């Protein structure tokens, strides 16, 4: 059994972890620590601790599937009602906050709760220090605006152009770095794109580990744009801003829900700038049926991940540029690509389209390994 690391936060990371646990018992969640709203924000402001909410959700996603695990999982997710001082707090948030104070270390606190839940895997913060997100936003005035705080960025009526972290160049959690370096599979997304997914690429040590890892790197796209930070975003725009924040990052696959991609050719074209040779764009029905809000179905996402990893493992590029399916791994020229190698769509998804051939899952990749990247790739992750 091989190792998988999923990076993100909130409901998106919960979906990824719920899918991964169907494929392997060795799963590590690396979680953003910039939340400043709700129960997490209150505990962070009052106690100066890491915001526990996203960490709690990741723990619940990996709780043991037995009576004890289900009981503890339900308990940590329980939120107090009423109008008193505890109203709105989740039990797991209070438990984590108490353990962080008693033990003096968030990783030790997370491991204690993991033991209570019989965790299948591990949950780690991306940094031991609470962080803040700042964003450059247009559409709020003639000169744009700078917005600070996860809640403010996530709910802005303006258009987010880029984000960064405060303090600048934060330290990565050592255990999270070790997990990324040891992983066979790395997953980014789905989730709040600017406030849960991209922040992992803004921690210098973590970014370097992701870029140079020999693991399979997979991006899972959101099912729909989120009100606020990604309102009106196409699937292509999600990839575009990811690449803008980490131009050196190359990935092995992009997974998207087939119903969420109105023009597959555009997604293939944009993804080509990020894919390694032999990389894939995989469209599959991964959305839950008739949800109250868009969310991934864990079983369907697990199936898609299994298919993608099997395809990646079976694809051997030869010197003729043909992969094992006989599809041409075509090189794209610079026409329609900007100076970063990204499709020059102005982030509006209206750039030129390209025909991807008869295999709707195959992507073409104009780039080799990222600078400083590893030549040897880990194959057959689930063997």
Draw up the topology in text.
Elements: E1 3-8, H1 10-20, E2 26-31, H2 38-47, H3 53-61, H4 67-77, H5 91-103, H6 106-117, E3 122-125, E4 132-138, E5 145-148, H7 150-154, E6 159-166, H8 174-182, E7 185-188, H9 193-197, H10 204-212, E8 216-220, H11 235-245, E9 251-257, H12 264-272, E10 275-284, H13 298-314
Helix pairs in contact: 1-3, 1-13, 3-4, 5-6, 8-10, 11-12
Organism: Pseudonocardia hierapolitana
Main location: cytoplasm
Family: Belongs to the gluconeogenesis factor family.
Choose one word for the global shape. Answer: globular
Q: Tell me the distance between the termini.
A: 6 Å
How do the helices and strands follow one another from N- to C-terminus? EHEHHHHHEEEHEHEHHEHEHEH
Could you tell me the number of beta strands? 10
